[in-house]
Amino acid sequence: MKLHYELSGPEDAPVVVLGNSLGTTTRLWDRQAPELEQRFRVLRYDHRGHGGSPASPGPYRIDDLADDVLELLDGLGFQRVSYCGVSMGAMVGMYLAGHAPERVDRLVLCCTAATYTAAAPWLERAAAVRAAGTGSIAAAVVDRWFTPALRERSPETVTRFEEMLASVDDESYAGCCEALAALDLRSVLPAIEAPTAVIAGARDEATPPECLRAIADAVPGARLHVVEAAHLANVEAADEVSAIMREHLG
Known about the structure:
Blueprint: E1 5-8, E2 15-19, H1 33-36, E3 41-45, H2 62-76, E4 81-86, H3 88-99, E5 104-110, H4 120-132, H5 138-143, H6 148-153, H7 155-166, H8 170-181, E6 196-201, H9 209-218, E7 223-227, H10 233-236, H11 238-249
Helix pairs in contact: 2-3, 4-8
């Protein structure tokens, strides 16, 4: 799978990969990338069927999405990188750090989970998208991404992310939902060697703080940070998340 990517920053700088949440594109990182580009070679990419990446029939598993990233890194000649991910992007990061520890230098995991208590909601969402398209779920899903305070003060942000989600290929989105339905990375976490920062949104209903605390407790030496935000904490609490990333990446 040849993923769409964007590469910026000094060519001789350490590489930082930014992985997106389900239903978002490289634009998810617009608040963090300009600062990171001052000190790092920043690689943003789109998951299958998202943004500029080609669509692919599902179902997928999380290792399929991780293999896409390894193929991208190999093609660019990047042997060792730091990886920062939100939600599904962070799941890819956990998989990579656990299964290919020699490839991951440092790890930032934001608003994510190692497993879900029930597969049915993800399978139902996959069926709904295949039947009526990503546009049919955009408003309801994005409603959980931000707090009421953010939605009130920045309705244009909500609109932008609804449009972003609605642009995702239906079958690819459904395939990703099926990957999340089957997700269980709990056995991987103790094998992660990369220094890890874990960021939870205090108001996140999709992956509540207890999900992130479980990850931080299982990854050796991981540190948990809680910020005032819902699911897309790097957007809603951009300054705080940027500061945590800046300190952790060094």
